[in-house]
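Structure (tokenized):
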């Protein structure tokens, strides 16, 4: 098993059955080595600076009905909101003053009529903050919309594939959605020159080790610039309310595998990880992550953007808690980097 870690370090890939063995491994010596190698690899690439991304949740309206997600269209218990452009700009100004140089605009999926207004907002942000990167995380859109956002100044896009297995995808999403379309969107985003992020939930309902191996093989072939993974966390107003949360340890193990597979990838220690355990962010970084995404949304709106239960959005998870975040990172030997932090091809 130790041999597999060395192989992954050197060749950045494993055979499907080898990924499976690593995911099932119970030998703490092996797992410790995996984690240590991943952390070393991240430090060699990025030093001890952790990139900051300011997350602005611009709207919790969504036309989709994903069975796991708290802002799904079918959740009638939720108060819906959409931030005015002026509110989004105010978040950016606050973030910029705090040192943020990346803004991530995330929302539920909107109809095509929202494409032009969003492009206009991106352009306004790009003009006011030419020193900042704009990342979008607004779901499946048309090629024209993706091109419009790109022209307006967005250079990065996050769209998790959620699972690379068709049957599993169909068990997590309603019939109107398809894995094929999701993958087609990812291909378009790359083609249009976005730094593209994908990823999956860990421990989503029905997920098997074989599914995770498929996810890893997909990521290995797709070569995204960013990978977002976090544990599944149930939300009470969804069909998966009674399903147990995903495993923190498995999430950390996957972060380490991803770091060794794609040494330069931008890998956040996600909010879901920090939600499930108080030092989740730190453990993510020690497993090879190099990005954190504090919440820059207006505090009054944050609890309405509940993708899952008890989502962390205060303290070190919020922009206001930057000092606490800095202290927590210092304690494990890291600092906050104020760099824009684009993906570097080497
Ligand atoms: N638990 C964890 N992650 C979730 N997401 C959505 N719902 C949940 C949940 N219940 C993740 C999805 C989506 C991202 C924005 O949030 O992977 O792509």
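Design, position by position:
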């Amino acid at each position: 098993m130790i041999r597999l870690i060395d192989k992954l370090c050197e060749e950045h890939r494993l055979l499907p059955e080898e990924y499976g063995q690593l995911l099932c491994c119970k030998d703490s010596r092996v797992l410790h080595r995996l984690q240590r190698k991943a952390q070393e690899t991240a430090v060699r690439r990025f030093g001890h600076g952790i990139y900051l991304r300011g997350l602005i949740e611009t709207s919790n309206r969504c036309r989709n009905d994903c069975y796991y997600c708290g802002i799904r269209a079918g959740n009638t218990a939720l108060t819906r909101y959409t931030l005015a452009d002026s509110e989004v700009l105010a978040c950016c100004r606050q973030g910029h003053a705090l040192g943020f140089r990346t803004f991530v605009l995330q929302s539920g999926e909107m109809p095509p009529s929202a494409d032009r207004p969003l492009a206009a907002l991106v352009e306004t942000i790009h003009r006011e903050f030419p020193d900042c990167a704009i990342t979008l995380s607004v779901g499946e859109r048309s090629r024209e919309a993706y091109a419009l956002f790109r022209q307006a100044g967005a250079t990065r896009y996050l769209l998790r594939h959620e699972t690379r297995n068709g049957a599993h995808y169909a068990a997590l999403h309603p019939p109107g959605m398809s894995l094929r379309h999701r993958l087609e969107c990812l291909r378009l985003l790359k083609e249009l020159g976005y730094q593209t992020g994908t990823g999956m939930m860990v421990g989503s309902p029905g997920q098997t080790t074989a599914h995770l191996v498929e996810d890893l093989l997909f990521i290995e072939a797709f070569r995204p610039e960013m990978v977002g993974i976090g544990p599944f966390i149930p939300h009470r107003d969804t069909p998966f309310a009674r399903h147990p949360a995903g495993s923190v340890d498995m999430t950390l193990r996957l972060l380490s595998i991803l770091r060794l597979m794609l040494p330069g990838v931008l890998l956040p220690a996600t909010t879901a990880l920090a939600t499930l355990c108080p030092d989740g962010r730190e453990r993510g970084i020690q497993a090879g992550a190099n990005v954190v995404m504090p919440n820059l949304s207006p505090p009054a709106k944050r609890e309405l953007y509940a993708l899952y239960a008890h989502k962390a959005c205060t303290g070190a998870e919020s922009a206001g808690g930057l000092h606490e975040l800095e202290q927590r990172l210092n304690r494990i030997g890291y600092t906050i980097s104020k760099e824009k932090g684009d993906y570097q091809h080497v």
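Reviewer-requested clarification: The mean pLDDT is 96. The pocket of 5'-deoxyadenosine is lined by residues 68-69, 160, 162, 201, 230, 232-233, 235, 272, 307-308 (CB under 6 Å).
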